[in-house]
Amino acid sequence: MAKKKQTAKKAKEAEKMINPSTGTEGSPVQVPETANEDSIEKTVKNKLTSLYTLQTIDFKIDRLRSVRGELPLEVQDLEDVIAGLETRLEKFNNEVRELETEISNKKIAAQESLELIKKYEAQQMNVRNNREYDSLSKEIEYQTLEAQLAEKKMKEFAAEVESKQELVKDVEAELEERNKDLEAKKAELNDIVAETEKDEAMLEKKAEEQRNKIEERLLNAYQRIRDNARNGLAVVPVERDACGGCFNKIPPQRHLDIRLHKKIIVCEYCGRILVDDEIMELVKSHMEA
Predict the structure, then answer these.
(1) Closest Cα to residue 31, out of 285, 262, 277, 279?
(2) How far apart are CA 257 and CA 274, in angstroms?
(3) d(CA 143, CA 149)
C-alpha cells in the first residue's frame, strides 16, 4: 500500500512537471483570454506528437542496442579477468626472480664458507699451541655450518622456484585461453556493431533533431520518466482502456481527457505520459513518410 501511494505521488509530481498549464514546480502559467480550445488542443497535440515520435525513435535505438545483448559486458568482464591474470603473472615472475637472486646469494655465501674452511685448515698446520688450534677448529666448524645452512636454503628456494614456475605455467595457459575468448567476443561484437552502427547513427541523428523541437522542461521530464522506466518507455499508448506501460485500467474520465488533448496526461500509477490512437496514427504516418 505504501509503495502504491509513493508511486501515485511520483505520478502527480510528473504531471505537474509536464502539464502545459503549470510552470516549474507547478506554478500557474497565465493563459491569454484570447486563447481558444482549438489552439490549446493543437499545441498539446503537437507536443504529444513530438514526444511520441522521439519515444518511437529511442525505442528503435534501444532495440538495435539490445541485439548486442550481454556481449559488451562479457567483453568487459574478460578484460577485467585478463588484467587480473596479468597482475598475478607479474607477481609470480617477480617472486621467481627474487628467489633466484636469493639462491645466487646463498651459493656465493656457501662458496665463501668453503674457501674460509680451506684457509683455516691450512693455518692449522702451522699453529704454535693448542689454543690457536682450537680457535681455528671452531671457525672451521662455524663455516661448515654456514655452508650447510646455505645449501639447505638453496634447496628450499629451488623448490619454491619450481612451485612458482608451475603456477606461472598455469596462469599463462589460462591467460592464453582467456585472450582467445576475448578475441572471439570482440570479433562477434564488432560484427554486430558494424551491422547496426549505420542505422543507429541515422536514428541518433533523427532523435537529436526531434529533441530540438521539444521544450527543455518537457524534454527533461521525458528523460527522467524514461530513465526510471524498466523498459525505457516514457510515452505509451492507451490500449484496451489501460496504460500501455503498467497495464493498469484508466478511468473513463481520464481516458476522455487524453483524447481531448487539453493537457498532457500521465498514468496515475506509473507516471508515464499517455497518448491516444490519434497521436499514434499521426506518428506512424509521419515515420513511414
Answers:
(1) 262
(2) 10
(3) 10
Q: Name which of 182, 214, 245 is nearest 49 in CA terms.
A: 214
Q: What is the pLDDT of residues 178-224, one digit of tens each?
A: 999 999 999 988 888 887 888 888 999 999 999 999 999 999 999 99
Q: How far apart are CA 205 and CA 212, in angstroms?
A: 11
pLDDT in tens, 71-119: 888 899 999 999 999 999 999 999 999 999 999 999 999 999 999 999 9
Cell of 52: 511520441
Confidence of residue 1 (pLDDT cuts 50, 70, 90): low
Using the structure block, give the residue that is written with the C-alpha cell 508515464: 272
Cα(200)–Cα(62) distance, integer angstroms: 9
Distance in angstroms (rounded) separating the CA atoms of residues 20 and 274: 14
> Considering only CA atoms, which of 196, 280, 265, 182 is closest in space to residue 225?
265
Give the integer Cα–Cα distance in Å for 163 and 236.
63
* pTM (whole model) above 0.70: no
- In the structure grid, which three cell numbers stand for residue 215, read together? 521544450
Q: Who contacts 192 (Cβ-Cβ below 8 Å, separation ≥6)?
A: 67, 68, 71
Considering only CA atoms, give the Rg of the chain: 39
What domains can you pick out in the chain, each with its CATH number? 2-66+215-288 (no CATH), 71-196 (1.10.287.1490)
Strand partners, 22: 28
